[in-house]
Amino acid sequence: QVQLQESAPGLVKPSQSLSLTCAVSGDSITTNYYYWSWIRQPPGKGLEWVGYISYSGSSYYSPSLRSRTSISRDTSNNQVFLQLSSVTPEDTAVYYCARYSTAVQLFDYWGQGTQVTVSS
Questions:
Q1: DSSP label of 10
Q2: How many CA atoms lie within 13 A of 28 on its CB side?
Q3: What is the pLDDT of residues 47-98, one digit of tens each?
Q4: What would the pLDDT profile of 19-30 be if each residue is shown by its tens digit?
Q5: Which of 108, 105, 106, 110 is nearest to 94 (CA)?
Q6: In sequence order, what E strands does 45-113 have?
Q7: Residue 109, SS3?
């Protein structure tokens, strides 16, 4: 059983950087051909895809967030990281990590999500 667990500071001040961790168990983040994604949901809005890091370590970001986003990984500890810089209150959201399977072409495993609030 694949499990994903997000962790984050909860409250971040505007203009600071936000760092989130996704701890993965039950599968290696280097297993072909999975993409480990970050997705967020602002209050009262739909899901927004932020970006991914692939099984091979390549990353790709939403064009609207690309200039402020970095996704990395620690293969030794099987973790995926999201860093979002220069945050504003509009970055307030529940942040999810999810595994995208190219075999079935869908996000087949999700974390429970973690609330991040940007406020002074």
A1: S
A2: 9
A3: 999 999 999 999 999 999 999 999 999 999 999 999 999 999 999 999 999 9
A4: 999 999 999 999
A5: 110
A6: 48-54, 59-61, 69-74, 79-84, 93-101, 106-110
A7: strand
Q: Which residue, chain included where needed, has tokens 């599968």?
A: 27
Task: Tally the C-alpha atoms within 13 A of residue 66's C-alpha that lie toward its C-beta.
Answer: 6
What b-and-e string marks burial along 53-75, b requiring 16 or more CB atoms within 10 Å of the CB?
Answer: bbbeeebebeeebeebbbbebee
Contact by Cβ (8 Å): 26, 17 = no
Spell out a b/e string for 76-86, using b for 16 or more CB atoms within 10 Å of the CB, else e.
eebbbbbebee
d(CA 55, CA 78): 11
Which candidate, 18, 13, 34, places its Cα nearest to that of 98?
A: 34
CB atoms closer than 10 angstroms to residue 11: 12
Joined together, the tokens standing for residue 4 give 């994903």
Residue position matching structure tokens 């609207």: 64
Is residue 73 within 8 A of residue 36, CB to CB? The reply is: yes
N-terminal to C-terminal alpha carbon distance within the chain: 39
